[in-house]
Amino acid sequence: MNPRRVLVLNHFAVPPGHPGGTRHVELFSRLPGWTHVIIASRRNMITGQPQRAEPGFHLVAVTPYRGNGLGRVVNWASYAVTATVASLRQPRPDVVYASSPHLLAGLSGCVVATLRRTPFVLEVRDLWPRVLVEMGTLSETSVAYRTLERLERFLYRRADRVVIMAPGVRAAIEGKGVAPDKIAFIPNAADPEDFVPSRPRAELRGRYGFTRRTAVYAGAHGPANGLDLLLAAAEAVPEIDVVLVGAGVEKARLQALARAIPNVRFLDPVPKSEIPDLLHAADVGVHVLADVELFRAGVSPNKVFDYMAAGLPIVTNSPGTVGDLVLGADSGYVTPPGHLAHGLAQITQASPDELAKMGAAGRSWIRANQSRTAMAHALGRLLAPLVEGDAPR
């Protein structure tokens, strides 16, 4: 039997050798009986640099932007247009799978699925537009919010399945009228086998310039990430070095703030293929978010799973879903949002054996419970009924 085809719309997807999100590459490449094409931006949205097409990818033009203003909205809209056109030129897929965070990618997927008469799966990475209200970006009474909420409800109604990545999102989506059996939980994940370093730890520490106990934050530098809280914590605990790796609209401002904090350093984004080396050189992985109530239950941060798969103990300032995961796996420390310094202080006081024990516990937990391979099997169970004609249309 010929393999099934899934068309994936993800504005921000990148191949494994580039900085950025590789969730769908890792998921769909592990899916037996399926081939996939990911429609992604031709411009890497972390580095701002062009990226070349690789097997399994079709790249489309988007407009450049800086900051969080109108240019970013135009960038989203440009992706929706070019992704729709590119998708309609692809061979007819068996399923269209569109991923947020911005809802225009979902709208593009819905249009393509309707025109090609195929099932439509919507993946909710962030609860838009609610998260924009929680962060103070939009008012509930604004025209923009009301428009986005109507689009959100429309996409939920049109989707054959809605994939969520954090369990706390389920209640919010059901509250929009989505039937419980239409929602599938497929969170972020990682495989320990993908996090084997290429060199001995001492050599890697020399490569990155790690000379003391070092905490690494590897991820986006945006408003939602709450990195001001990390800088304040680093300043309060000078005994530990804090290295922030990545890019984002807040990075220049954060670098200016950190000039007076000698134990803070910034590095450029690194490709996902280099992350195992970076994490192996570090002593602890830091996860930090802004103090937003929605983040307690509505996030599935890939960096936490990467830290666990790499055997790195974790400090997070996110109680709730993430905090429960870290505590349940005995893999690190959890603090209230504004008390990250306490977690860093605990790391400085822990012995090497204690850190190794937490790292090993996290690796064991993710291997047993939340590997990419296990999540790919869950995805396969989600897609099979859609192509076998059992899904409601």
As a percent range, the share of strand residues is 15-25%
Helical proportion, percent range: 40-55%
Low-confidence stretches: none
Class by alpha and beta content: alpha/beta
Mind telling me the C-alpha Rg? 21 Å
Based on Cα principal axes, name the global outline: globular
Largest sheet: number of strands, sense, barrel closure? 7 strands, parallel
Individual helix count = 15
What series of H and E elements makes up the topology? EHEEHEHEHHEHEHEHEHEHEHEHEHHH
Draw up the topology in text.
Elements: E1 4-9, H1 23-28, E2 34-41, E3 57-60, H2 70-89, E4 95-99, H3 103-116, E5 120-124, H4 130-134, H5 143-158, E6 161-164, H6 169-174, E7 183-185, H7 201-208, E8 214-218, H8 227-236, E9 241-245, H9 251-257, E10 264-267, H10 275-281, E11 284-287, H11 302-309, E12 314-316, H12 321-328, E13 332-334, H13 340-349, H14 352-369, H15 372-387
Parallel strand pairs: 1-2, 1-4, 2-3, 4-5, 5-6, 6-7, 8-9, 8-11, 9-10, 11-12, 12-13
Task: Give a brief outline of the structure.
With 393 residues, this protein is of the alpha/beta class.
Question: Any descriptors?
Answer:
about 400 residues, alpha/beta, 6-stranded parallel beta sheet, 15 helices, globular
Report on this structure.
This protein has 393 residues and is of the alpha/beta class. It has 15 helices and 13 strands. It has helices at 23-28, 70-89, 103-116, 130-134, 143-158, 169-174, 201-208, 227-236, 251-257, 275-281, 302-309, 321-328, 340-349, 352-369, 372-387, and strands spanning 4-9, 34-41, 57-60, 95-99, 120-124, 161-164, 183-185, 214-218, 241-245, 264-267, 284-287, 314-316, 332-334. The chain has a 7-stranded parallel β-sheet, with helices on both faces. The chain has a 6-stranded parallel β-sheet with strand order 10-9-8-11-12-13, sandwiched between helices. Strand 4 (95-99), helix 3 (103-116) and strand 5 form a beta-alpha-beta unit. Helix 3 packs parallel to helix 5 (143-158). It starts with a strand and ends in a 6-residue tail after the last helix. The model has no long low-confidence stretch (mean pLDDT 91).
